[in-house]
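Incident review: delayed structure delivery

Summary: a single-chain prediction request sat in the queue longer than the usual turnaround. Root cause was a stuck worker, restarted by the on-call engineer. No data loss occurred. The affected request and its eventual output are reproduced below so the record is complete for anyone auditing the incident later.

Affected input:
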Amino acid sequence: MKIKRGKLLASAFGGLLLAVGALAPAFAGDVPSDFNLQVTPSPLVTTVKPGVKTQIELKVRNGGSGTENLKIEPRSFNFKSSTGQISLDDTAPPGVAPWVSFSAPKFTVQPGQWFSQQIIFNVPKDAGFSYSFALVISRQSDPKPTNGGRLIKGSLAVFTLVNVDRPGAKSSLEVKDFTISKHLYEYLPATLSIHFKNNGNTIAQPYGNIFVQRTANSKKPLAVLPVNGSKSYILPGTERVITASWNDGFATYEAAPQPDGTSKNHLVLNWSKFSHFRIGRYTAHLVAVYNDGQHDVPIEGTVSFWVIPWRAILLTLFSIVAVWLLSLWLFVKLLRRHDRKRARREQQEQKKEAEK
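Output delivered after worker restart:
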């Protein structure tokens, strides 16, 4: 496996690896069925200048059937690189709360209506390079208990990534590993993993493609797999593994749910892709980039693997050998039968000669 890495100084922004949606719920916990909020954009990503007030619009839609009296507050969260898990805190983010404000800290949204919330960032001149926190939208007061006596609270968190455009910002993303889950597959899918590490003090957002080819010098790829198609972000000082799967083949494994809740792979034959029967050696070529604020910095890598349907091959060889052995047995049997007939004829001829 070969990796080429690019590292440059840049003015970029810090954040978390999160899927971007043009219109999507960001984070909900213990949400009642009638608590239905949508926000855009999510996550909220912006670049600000120290000492300059910046205003960003966040739209909130009430998809529920009742009027919602809401409030919005900044909250801290923790991200574990080892597991990719996010845990939301009930405390205001230190160093952030004093310079984040809202046009309407408390607001009301009618059913089916949108509300435009203005997020105001008044970053001090001595601010750092990047900040990541959550804007939690929740009800102003707790709802009444349900018939079962339970009190259900609804909340939604918009993860917010703020870059401070100041001298000293450094964007540096490296690929620690570009690997394949197995070097020998019986059938597809083949899973490719890219282990990114953000060595800078600002956000990094990689994107690009993985080209699956017969050889490293092939002119035309067999498949093009997007890298980070969800347009995710990686926090400064964190690591994350992004995967891509190649399953374009005539014979592929698919996971089927089992009664006990587990899943089990079973072989699926897609006759419309009979010409895509995969066997032999393949090469995956990574071509990714990240923007350092001025231009794209390339990241490349290659890894090779084999697809050998060994059980089908063994079954075919066994069938060929079995047919050959059966043919040989029948041939020997016919020879012996022919020899017996010839021996009987000779005995009969000798007997006739003796009678004369």
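Verification: Confidence is low (pLDDT under 50) at residues 5-32.
Action items: add queue-age alerting; document worker restart procedure.
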